[in-house]
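Following the same procedure, the fold was encoded as tokens, giving this record:
***
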Amino acid sequence: MDLLNTLVDKGLRRELPTREEALAVLATSDDDVLDVVAAAGKVRRHWFGRRVKLNYLVNLKSGLCPEDCSYCSQRLGSTAGILKYTWLKPDEASRAAAAGLAGGAKRVCLVASGRGPTDRDVDRVAGTIKAIKEQNEGVEVCACLGLLSDGQAERLREAGADAYNHNLNTSEATYGDITTTHTYADRVDTVTKAHAAGLSACSGLIAGMGESDEDLVDVVFSLRELDPDSVPVNFLIPVEGTPLAKEWNLTPQRCLRILAMVRFVCPDVEVRIAGGREVHLRTMQPLALNLANSIFLGDYLTTEGQAGKADLEMIADAGFEVEGAEQVTLPGHRATAGGGCGSHGGGGCGPQESAGCGGHEGSGCGAHEDGGVCGTAAAAAPASAPAAVAAAAGEARTDLVAVRRRGAGTDLAPNA
């Protein structure tokens, strides 16, 4: 199809598609989805080969957030039965991070709920970054702490942070429908502060909140203008107890088209599949590796993810390879541009996840030996008849949403 040939040519030249072309990708039929994946896959392989970067989330502080982001299980007024705890100590966070690094992760993402960090919070996170880096040579650390005040990005950089994540989440036009306690402009300001401080900027979106195709294209074009090194694509995990609990708007094919559109608009940027891939892509996850070059390993912030062992098997079976600590994530022209991913040899930056930070309400990370889909042993078993029928009929798979009960903030081993 002429559209796809044009988009491949533009992607190989790092040329921005038109809005009409991006919208046309989202409007393609399910019959054409494999052609869309194949085309976007050429762009992905050109810039990133067959490498997959693994990232691991550590939820430093869970719940108790004063913000009202509708997608988030940690929000003000949430009745979701999630883990709630205050700041992990540096040694606790370091132990949690070690599990993900042992599982193959290259980057650790340190996330904390809340509007934004106080200066004391920045000191806490600085101590955690130091503990992790002292014990794990070459590890990348991304902080995700909410809205930043003047000077805080510089302090995180001095403490050893490589990157900062803060997602735009949705279009500027509809942002007020999702969150009222801060603005879209506040989020843009934080990404700009991180970039200016020399941190690798990480900013992405959440799909599936009831947005239009135009909203998706708007937010991705805004991200391209901000020029982050990594763009996490979250698929809404509708958690009971949140305002968007009934928003089940995604199919695996829709998710693939969204990822392809992001790849065409951001061809040489690390595109990460973040929260919700297990719930919405399901058995189509391996196809998505042809579009994104980065994923989270294991559990998310407040919900469980696919078992870490299953992630690694999926990557190998699909013909991809885990990116090593010695490999630079970004293409040379980005890695050497200053503050970009991989700009310090084995360090640098890569991708990441939004609950004020990176993944989204259900994001966060881990993984574990006996976890199945959503990390539970039960999910690893054959689907029940009702679940199988629901999947075949394209209905919501609420059985794939499980609240995280292990890892950070618990006495149980993490899923890694």
